[in-house]
Prior knowledge:
By secondary structure, the chain is α/β, with parallel strands linked by helices. 34% of the residues lie in helices and 15% in strands. A seven-stranded parallel β-sheet has the order 8-7-6-9-10-11-12, sandwiched between helices. A five-stranded parallel β-sheet has the order 2-1-3-4-5, covered by helices on one side. The chain is elongated, with a radius of gyration of 22 Å. The structure holds NADPH dihydro-nicotinamide-adenine-dinucleotide phosphate and (2R)-2,3-dihydroxypropanoic acid. Residues 85-86, 106, 109, 113, 161-167, 185-188, 217-221, 223-224, 245-247, 271-272, 295, 297-298 line the site of NADPH dihydro-nicotinamide-adenine-dinucleotide phosphate.
Amino acid sequence: xxxxxxxxxxxxxxxxxxxxxxxxxxxAGDCSVQLWDSDEPIPQSELxxxxxxxxxxxxxxxxxxxxxxxxxxxxxxxxxxxxSVGYDHLAIPEIKKRGIRVGYTPDILTDxxxxxxxxxxxxxxxxxxxxxxxxxxxxxTTWKPLWMCGYGLSGSTVGIIGLGxxxxxxxxxxxxxxxxxxxxxxxxxxxxxxxxxxxxxxPLAKLAxxxxxxxxxxxxxPDTQGMCNRDFFGKxxxxxxxxxxxxxxxxxxxxxxxxLVNGHIAAAGLDVxxxxxLPTNNPLLSLKNCVILPHIGSATxxxxxxMSVLAANNLLAGLKGESMPSELxx
Length: 330
Ligand code: NDP
Ligand code: DGY
């Protein structure tokens, strides 16, 4: 007797992804995979065509999954799996309304992102990119007592906006540098993490006023959008350093530019901007006291491989109606 033919589940992947993730999808055997096989973002028209009639969507943080995309996918779409822990690019209320499940990649990228946050903080506060340029362009004429001085962590107060997985991991890494005091802000106090760090839960304004280093590691939500604005930078010390590895839209970039140019704060390090990529004529790029990276927080080979396998397994489990390794609670 012939086994009844099983319908293959149709999956659309919006970008070239690490081979481990793709192999996980391909070897599942019960799904047919259509891949936008490019390192560049998929044009909107191709995304709309690609998702049509699919059961599962494997997407990136640069894909805006909104009502238009969900309508184009139609009622067959059961699971969205994003290769990121951040999910501000997903229209969650629409997704929830349609009963679509969402997978994401928390925890496994925490170490890589915390490490990059510390690297960016040190590069910014100790002026590493500026110093490298001076060595190359002949600006290094002799050892000068007052040249290329920056700010050190020893004896400092560090303020963390969003003491979640990444914020906590950053603080743990900074403690051995001799930080005297940790402050943090968020929607709720985090007694366990705070006890380990001896960190104090404070309102945002107090964190701005008292911190020598402000580090943004919160998620982007309607509440955090534009949270770091003129008023916020105006409260910071003139000697303080601002670091953002969360999402660009948490910061009002015009206000940040003003604060940097007018010396209201000492320096800023950003791994995330609005938009991404940041146009090369953006005024922030003209400033020596602003270090900008191209959103590389989780960019280690191992982390990206693990993320791709987790995102693939989330998708497969969701399509089978099983519990996902990392499902976002909607
Ligand atoms: P978590 O959910 O563990 O942490 C997010 C934190 O944001 C929580 O502590 C939450 O606090 C806080 N938060 C929410 N609302 C506010 C608010 N109004 N004010 C202050 N804090 C708030 O997520 P992760 O630590 O895993 O990731 C955080 C973010 O980092 C991601 O959402 C993503 O945007 C970004 N990211 C960037 C990367 C990069 O490459 N640069 C890599 C990975 C992540 P509470 O619990 O009190 O609500
Ligand atoms: C995320 O996961 O949200 C990051 O921005 C990229 O790893």
